[in-house]
Amino acid sequence: MEKVINENLKLGEVVSIFPASSEIFNGYKVDYCCGGYDTLGQALKEKGLDSDKIIEELNREYNKFISSNAEYKDWRKEKPSNLIKHILRTHHDFTKKELREIDMLMFKILKVHFTAHKEELLTVHRLFGNLKIELEEHLIKEEEELFPLIEEFEHTKNEKILADIRKFIKDTEDEHDAAGDILKELERVTGDFKIPKGACTTYKLVYDRIHNLQNDLFIHIYLENSVLFNMI
């Protein structure tokens, strides 16, 4: 078996080499988006995980992926403007839609299940509200300020624009960390998005959709932190 993935690779590099590794990392609760600059070995050690076992699993699944002749786009080889278009169409649009629809469903279950699950629901409602505000402001700043600057720099190579971009990148990564912290707290409060006994279908739908939003945001943040920002 070819061993391409090793403990010295950064988490972001592993996902670039083998995109489906994101699912394996999700299963072990390894943060490859905000923590994409950490090495695989360092991340697994900090989580107290069996690094030999997981690296073996990653290489085994990677070899299956290569043998299947599956095609994937290595965004590191694309122009920044092409990656930005992909992020907008695939992740920004999805995030906006999910935030809007989850918000409506959240209010519904808060009203219906308030008496039975008051403490958990109030906490989840408050955390999701904070996440919604954080992400909506973040998306607009990227769309109206950061992304246009990156696209302009791609064409002009203007050093003043580059300096502005680098400042925006620092602020953007801080906002990514803040959103990631809220999601981790939501995961903790809900016991990994498990609904209470006796909860209705809508309750489950809300938790499932927050979980799906989390998984999509992990890929979204990885593409920005570990790929797009490294192109600059």
TrEMBL record:
<protein>
    <submittedName>
        <fullName>Iron-sulfur cluster repair di-iron protein</fullName>
    </submittedName>
</protein>
<feature type="domain" description="Hemerythrin-like">
    <location>
        <begin position="86"/>
        <end position="232"/>
    </location>
</feature>
<dbReference type="InterPro" id="IPR019903">
    <property type="entry name" value="RIC_family"/>
</dbReference>
<dbReference type="GO" id="GO:0046872">
    <property type="term" value="F:metal ion binding"/>
</dbReference>
<dbReference type="Pfam" id="PF01814">
    <property type="entry name" value="Hemerythrin"/>
</dbReference>
<dbReference type="GO" id="GO:0005737">
    <property type="term" value="C:cytoplasm"/>
</dbReference>
<dbReference type="Pfam" id="PF04405">
    <property type="entry name" value="ScdA_N"/>
</dbReference>
<keyword id="KW-0408">Iron</keyword>
<keyword id="KW-0963">Cytoplasm</keyword>
<dbReference type="InterPro" id="IPR038062">
    <property type="entry name" value="ScdA-like_N_sf"/>
</dbReference>
<dbReference type="InterPro" id="IPR012312">
    <property type="entry name" value="Hemerythrin-like"/>
</dbReference>
<keyword id="KW-0479">Metal-binding</keyword>
